[in-house]
Amino acid sequence: MSKQNKVNNAQNQVILYGRHAVFEALKNPLRKITKVLITAENEAEFKKEFRDIPYQIVQKKEIEKVLPQNAVHQGFALFTKSLPPVFLEDLIQTASNKEKCMVLILDQVTDPQNIGAIMRSAAAFNAAGIIVQDKNAPSESGAMAKASAGTIEFMPLVRATNLSRAIEQLKKAGFWIIGMDGYAKQSLKDINKNAKLAVVMGSEGAGMRRLIQESCDLTVRLEMNPRVESLNVSVAAGIVLYELSSIAA
Known about the structure:
Blueprint: H1 3-10, E1 13-17, H2 19-27, E2 33-38, H3 43-49, E3 56-57, H4 60-65, E4 76-81, H5 88-95, E5 101-107, H6 112-124, E6 129-133, H7 142-147, E7 157-160, H8 163-172, E8 176-180, E9 186-187, E10 196-202, H9 210-214, E11 218-221, H10 233-244
């Protein structure tokens, strides 16, 4: 499939909700926005932030009609096209002039809120991007954007057709592939941070698939109480990103 076809297929309608998600989307020039709904009590704040963007004043129940049940919208909703895709080649190009950087590879992580929360941590700790397998990863959604607190607008999310092939491309570009495995002998804190690192995280239950694990240059574990079997993948990702970031150095 050509890049242009992928771009066309990606442009599906998404409804974003929540203050941070909506405000960040409105600041993103790549967004194709069709409608903005806000409640009356939010009008003054909205007009102060976005003077030239048209909007509709509606009751909360009108927003709730178009959102999933129990979605926390804070009086803001936005109809938009999904973001254009980011390609692995773009991520590699961005990293080409850096001596050190990190990306996350998510293998079989399917919950949109987990991916959104991981985006937020990735943005907080200066990751270059996140890579998921296109077939198994959820599409962009309001839940993902809300969990990301708006960082979905600027944290690159690459949807790779084949993760093993993506890993090989990263290796050729100078990345070390680090797999997170609770049974690994080596600890995350002992690896060299001054390099280009691609960290693979599997799902909370199944972990990494065998072929993906075999593609790793090494596997490491998080140091934690042995009575705790595992952490939620978004929590674990936040710890990994902090440990490898310049902030923790």
